[in-house]
Amino acid sequence: MTAHALYGDTQSTALYDIPGPQARRRHALYGIGSTVLILALVGWLLYLLFDTDQFTAAKWSPFTYKGIQELLLRGLGNTLKAFAYASVLSLVLGAVLATGRLSVHRPLRWLSTLCVEFFRAMPVLVMIFFIFVALKVQPLPALVAGLTLYNGSVLAEVFRTGVNAVDKGQREAAYALGMRKTQVMTHVLAPQAVRAMLPTIISQLVVALKDTSLGFLITYEEFLHAGKLIASNLDYDLPFIPVVMIISPVYIGMCMLLSWFATWVARRERGNVKTSAVEVAGTDPGTVLPGR
How far apart are alpha carbons 162 and 55 in whole angstroms? Predict the structure, then answer.
């Protein structure tokens, strides 16, 4: 009998023992109990919704009108527009601040650090209100500016950490080949760091997408603002809960889509590490050396 046959099962279960009959029964009871608890909670919530007449036709009738549907679609489009602007500008600002924090020039490094720490510590809503009220900026630029300052400062730390996480030997080897610092950053460090940073970057963009809902506080006509207009309408018996049940799945779906995209890209990057093929010219017969 081989050593693998003797010790293979022990090594495969060293970190987790296979549950026995009693443990399996106990786990099954835990699963049944959790399922019953969740179903009871869902049933209780449905009871409350029916008991408070949240599913009456009067409260759901607004969503059948074309004007209400266009209002929601326009709000969703404004949300996506604000998110697109904020995400692109946040990535650019994060790259600029991260470059400053990685600079060898001390004043530039200190200034970038001050900006990052200040905007990370400031609440997003405070920045949006300050830009909108004090600087008298229009709602969309104020919302985008507040989201950009906060998320850009967070992404700057993500970029800096990702670049510093690359093995120092990569940097030293590039310098040994005579590459300049800019070439080392763009051709050696950044491509390797992006693979590790990508899930965190997408996760921060999910935060930016959710924070676009703060725009309704400064009268920006985004998705939540459209829902607020419908929910506060007395003609439809204040359909607050139906509006929440319509808007929440849309936000959750968009965030889940971004999270899924991050997972898919990360899995693709881990599974498809390739190098570009370089064509090599065939060898031609050279001059035959004497004596050969």
Answer: 50
H helices of the chain, in order, are 3-12, 21-51, 57-60, 66-101, 106-121, 124-129, 139-165, 168-176, 181-184, 190-211, 223-231, 240-271
Report yes or no: 158 and 198 within 8 Å, Cβ to Cβ: no
The structure tokens 């998705």 sit at: 223
Tokens 């930016």, residue located = 208
Q: Residue type for 32, please?
A: I
Average pLDDT over residues 102-120: 91
Joined tokens for residue 102: 């990685």
Q: Which residues lie closer than 8 Å to 288 by C-beta, 6 or more apart?
A: none
Specify whether the CB–CB gap between 250 and 226 falls below 8 A: no
Residues 220-248: what's their mean pLDDT? 84
The structure tokens listed for 86 are 């904020």
